[in-house]
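Re: beginner question about structure tokens

> Can someone show what the tokenized structure looks like for a real chain? I only ever see the sequence side.

Sure, here's an example I had lying around. Input first:
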Amino acid sequence: MSRWAIPGRLLRQSILIDPFCGCGFSREWAKHSRLKPHPQRVPITVFSLLVVSVLLLTACSSGDSGSADYEPFDEASITNVWHKAKLRGVAFRAIGQEPGWLLEITDGTEIMLSTDYGQNTGNYPYVEPVVYQDQRRTLYVIDDQDIEIEIRGQRCQDVMSGEEFVVSVTITLSDRELNGCGRALY
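And the corresponding structure tokens:
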């Protein structure tokens, strides 16, 4: 018989619970084993174990007896555009106003920039940024398109919605500069 086995003929006797492993064994079996009585062992009867088990099962069961009908997850039901972007794998997202623009950076994949309220959209290959830790600044430069994206670790507030952000973003294009706010989506 193994060290922690409880023989069937001893079910009416008290069971000792070892506080270090949570294992149980009968008092009679403990007398015949090499184990010495432990002052912290708590005698528990089979009846009290049964009562505790029933209470736990009752607490974990649901109120209704029928099975619940769960609808499968539908990404279209999500209305938060930031959360949708995160589900698409976007690591950083920024917005700006006057004129409205949107930036989404997907690590290792692409940089998407939409300007003029969505009239001009470009998808560019991902470029590794230059990070200036001491200045709390990250710089993406897309040389062939003459685009520079600067992300600064300073508070920013969207001028249209009033929403607060923890970083400000400046996008320098060949003909103009766009300012806005953004956040990491991890």
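Each token stands for a local structural state, so reading them left to right follows the chain. Residues 46-60 form the longest helix (15 residues).
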